[in-house]
Known about the structure:
With 66 residues, the protein is of the alpha+beta class. The protein has helices at 4-12, 46-58; strands spanning 17-22, 25-30, 37-42. α1 runs parallel beside α2.
Amino acid sequence: MKQIGNLAIVCARRKDVTLRIERGRVMVLLDGTYAPTAFSADWDDDETILSVINELNFGQCAPKSQ
């Protein structure tokens, strides 16, 4: 539950990311040119949400530097 606010901030800074919270689940949808990506976790699963934040910031889904 502590990481959901951090996830919201990360998603708000990116135009290619949509954050949805419904029925106890957090869903992050990333618009991809060829293959859209989706992440999902329980709203209080801090470990999984932190891994999604890490992926969005530093992993394969991180924004490409220009």
